[in-house]
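REQUEST FORM: STRUCTURE PREDICTION
Request ID: SP-0412
Submitted by: Lab K.M.
Chain count: 1
Length (residues): 51
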Amino acid sequence: MTYEAGFSSLSHFSNSFREFYGMSPSRYVELYHNGAQHDGQEPTQPDASNE
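STATUS: Completed
RESULT:
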C-alpha cells in the first residue's frame, strides 16, 4: 500500500500517517480494523482551525 499511495519509502509513509492521524499505522489497524472500534467510524483528519 505504501508504494501504491505514492510514497517512496516505508518510513516516510509511516511518519506522514502518524502526523495525519495522530497514531502509527499499526495502532490504526489495531483500533479500526481488528474489531476494537464498535461504532463503525474511522478517525478523521484533525481540524487545523483548532491549532
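NOTES: The chain has one domain: 1-37.
Reviewed by: T.R.
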